[in-house]
UniProtKB/TrEMBL annotation:
<feature type="disulfide bond">
    <location>
        <begin position="40"/>
        <end position="120"/>
    </location>
</feature>
<comment type="similarity">
    <text>Belongs to the peroxidase family. Classical plant (class III) peroxidase subfamily.</text>
</comment>
<dbReference type="GO" id="GO:0140825">
    <property type="term" value="F:lactoperoxidase activity"/>
</dbReference>
<keyword id="KW-1015">Disulfide bond</keyword>
<feature type="binding site" description="axial binding residue">
    <location>
        <position position="198"/>
    </location>
    <ligand>
        <name>heme b</name>
    </ligand>
</feature>
<feature type="disulfide bond">
    <location>
        <begin position="126"/>
        <end position="327"/>
    </location>
</feature>
<keyword id="KW-0479">Metal-binding</keyword>
<feature type="binding site">
    <location>
        <position position="93"/>
    </location>
    <ligand>
        <name>Ca(2+) 1</name>
    </ligand>
</feature>
<feature type="binding site">
    <location>
        <position position="77"/>
    </location>
    <ligand>
        <name>Ca(2+) 1</name>
    </ligand>
</feature>
<keyword id="KW-0575">Peroxidase</keyword>
<feature type="binding site">
    <location>
        <position position="250"/>
    </location>
    <ligand>
        <name>Ca(2+) 2</name>
    </ligand>
</feature>
<keyword id="KW-0964">Secreted</keyword>
<dbReference type="InterPro" id="IPR019794">
    <property type="entry name" value="Peroxidases_AS"/>
</dbReference>
<dbReference type="GO" id="GO:0006979">
    <property type="term" value="P:response to oxidative stress"/>
</dbReference>
<dbReference type="InterPro" id="IPR010255">
    <property type="entry name" value="Haem_peroxidase_sf"/>
</dbReference>
<dbReference type="GO" id="GO:0020037">
    <property type="term" value="F:heme binding"/>
</dbReference>
<feature type="active site" description="Proton acceptor">
    <location>
        <position position="71"/>
    </location>
</feature>
Length: 331
């Protein structure tokens, strides 16, 4: 009888235990999907509703919200430092080379935060809002969902130098990009899978112009760029001017989260140099591109795994950081 009771208690604990315990930091605390179930049960519903409205208004916003989370996590971890405006001695990350005139979606995060502050004041962190918005943006555009570990807290500082140096750039070499991923605890599988987020969204002419006119410093186009595709790009991305002209990262299905991005790479129609080198500069990454191009389900599975992994980079938990009332400034 005692054995039966013990077994019952064991399975009961399994049933109600969090799906994922991640990163117990020195400040104490864990990340787990049910973090707000008691303190703010409507939190995820509120985030999803506002993200859906924003994406319905502008399809591009889905990619922007995914990218915002990525650019935050690669600098000091997933702590919402990217949302802070310059104030006093604090210099915002928004003015860094990778972010200036590029990252967007701040107003959507503000709207979500305002709604959550009304529902449950100083409970849901800006860092968790970004993680949820990135997940919901993926789902809304047709991509996979995942049980998202929650419980991040917000930083009280930012790092302009970290933003300038840690975020992979469109013209970085393959090894440089891989090194930046490895420094964050991510591997080559994560690199290729997360690059798949370029199945949605746009890039500015200035981010890939070099490929069209002077890839190797010899005034020649990138030989790994399909010639007919390059010709189409030149029509709206001239040698000078048009810096802010936008181009779909995946011209086949620009607003649909799918594996066409990888199929484009195999046809040498990747828009950014950092996209195409996944096929041309490394055998292992090329094989991963082939795998995801041939099987959308496998890509979705790995993307979800890699997003969870990225979202777990150096979170502030327990007594570390704070829960900002306004995502743009410290309390």
């Amino acid at each position: 009888m005692a054995k039966s009771i013990n077994l019952f208690m064991f399975f009961t604990l399994l049933t109600f235990a969090p799906l994922c315990f991640c990163h117990n930091t020195n400040g104490g605390g864990y990340l787990y999907p049910q973090f707000y179930d008691q303190s703010c049960p409507k939190a995820q519903e509120i985030v999803k509703s506002i993200v859906a409205k924003a994406v319905a208004k502008e399809a591009r916003m889905a990619a922007s919200l995914v990218r915002l989370h990525f650019h935050d996590c690669f600098v000091k971890g997933c702590d919402a430092s990217i949302l802070l405006d310059t104030s006093g001695r604090l210099i915002s990350e928004k003015g860094s080379i990778p972010n200036k005139n590029s990252v967007r979606g701040f107003e959507v995060i503000d709207e979500i935060k305002s709604a959550l502050e009304k529902e449950c004041p100083q409970t849901v962190s800006c860092a968790d809002i970004m993680a949820l918005a990135a997940r919901d943006s993926t789902v809304i555009t047709g991509g996979p969902s995942w049980a998202l570990p929650l419980g991040r807290r917000d930083s009280r500082d930012a790092s302009l130098s970290g933003s300038n140096n840690n975020i992979p750039a469109p013209n970085n070499t393959f090894q440089t990009i891989l090194t930046k991923f490895k420094l964050k605890g991510l591997n080559i599988v994560d690199l290729v899978a997360l690059s798949g987020s370029h199945t949605i969204g746009n890039a500015r002419c200035t981010t890939f112009r070099q490929r069209l006119y002077n890839q190797s410093g010899n005034s020649q186009a990138d030989l790994t760029l399909d010639k007919s595709y390059a010709s189409q790009l030149r029509a709206r991305c001239p040698k000078s001017g048009g810096d802010q002209n936008l181009f779909a990262l995946d011209f086949v299905s620009p607003t649909r989260f799918d594996n066409n991005y990888f199929k484009n790479l195999l046809s040498f129609k990747g828009l950014l140099s950092s996209d195409q080198i996944l096929v041309t500069k490394n055998q292992e990454s090329m094989e991963l591109v082939k795998k995801y191009a041939s099987n959308n389900e496998i890509f979705f599975e790995q993307f979800a795994i890699s997003m969870i992994k990225m979202g777990n980079i150096s979170p502030l938990t327990g007594s570390k950081g704070e829960i900002r009332k306004n995502c743009r400034k410290m309390n």
